[in-house]
Each structure stands twice: as C-alpha cells, then as structure tokens.
User: What shape does this take?
Amino acid sequence: MSMKDITSREDVEFLVQAFYGRIVKDDLIGFFFTDVAKIDLNLHLPKMYNFWESILLGNPVYEGQPMAKHFPINDIAAMEEKHFNRWLQVWERTVHENFEGHNAENAITRALNIARIMHHKMKSVR
Assistant: This one.
C-alpha cells in the first residue's frame, strides 16, 4: 500500500506534530526543547506549521527569523553536529513513516540543508 505525499496544511500539521511528539522526548536532544528553550508547543507548533507549509507547499505564510531564535539557545547549550544529526534522523524517520513522494523527499532535503547551515552558523559564534 502506498502512502500519500505532503499536499495540504493538514499533512504539514500531522508531520510536525508527529515529529515534535518524538523530539521532545528524545534522550539526546529533547532537553534543548524542554529545558533550554522551554518551548510552549501551543505557541511553537503553529509557527512550525507555517514554516514547513511555506517551504513544502510554497504558501508564504511564515514570518520570522529562524536563525535568530536559535542563537540564544546555542549560547546556553552548544548545538553540536551529533544534535543536528539526531534532529535529522528523527525528521527523516517521521517523514518516511507517514508520507512518500516529491514533497516528502523535499522535506528531507530541505531539513538537511537547514541543519547544515544552522550547524555552520552555530559553530562560527562559539
């Protein structure tokens, strides 16, 4: 049985919710979300829905500076390559377990690029 691609806001919301459900409990990087950033998922998830909808569906609904939000977190606890790798592993697993197709693969490619850029920038300010 084939899975569907990411084609709607509802698909994006499902993916992001599934991902955050895993990542906040992750033994390697969950603490960034719960202890360091202390994110409120009720506030954070709608921003992530908009971010990924903008990237994957081309709807310009995201406004913000994602890099700027992460520098203060990096100041408290260094975001290292192993942390970005785990973030990517969980993201890729969540995508592949729920979706397949062009946008699903794009979600993984874009996440990889975001992680590379963010890791590079975080290293340069340490």
